[in-house]
Write a structure and sequence with these properties.
single chain; alpha/beta; Nucleotidyltransferase, domain 5; 2 domains
Length: 141
């Protein structure tokens, strides 16, 4: 039996994503991430619920890996994010539902500054520097 566990993000909200395999995907868990200790405890619960005492856990999260190394029964294995992409696929699959259930607000990206404003800003910064004496005077505003 194998578990793949990672902390994945939707916008700025972290989620603990666990995919449990026994040849095929047998269980998938997505829940809000609270702490590394809580994630390890949740992995223990999943393992116990499926009647196992020890399990291999793949992760690409370094903090989770460090906690798994200190935990008996959970054999933490650090993997490249390409090897643990199943957790990202799971969170993408349920993304719209998670937006609704957890009231996640989308991050609005601001457009880049137009060229004419960048030019004007650079000109004003040069003028400010000239007025201040180009570092010659102690002038804090």
């Amino acid at each position: 039996m194998l578990a793949i566990a990672n902390v994945e993000y939707i916008e700025a909200t972290p989620f603990l994503v666990i995919a449990l395999y026994d040849r095929y995907l047998i269980d998938a868990i997505i829940e809000p991430f609270e702490s590394i200790e809580g994630a390890v405890e949740r992995l223990h619960d999943v393992v116990a619920r499926h009647g196992q005492t020890a399990i291999d856990v793949w992760t690409s999260n370094r903090d989770l890996f460090a906690a798994l190394l200190q935990t008996p029964g959970l054999n933490g294995i650090i993997k490249h994010p390409d090897d643990t992409r199943d957790t990202l696929a799971l969170i993408k699959q349920y993304e719209s539902i998670l937006y609704e259930v957890h009231d996640i607000e989308p991050i609005i990206k601001r457009p880049p500054l137009p060229k004419w404003r960048r030019f004007l800003l650079a000109l004003l910064l040069k003028l400010e520097n000239l007025i201040k004496g180009e570092g010659k005077y102690d002038c804090e505003i």
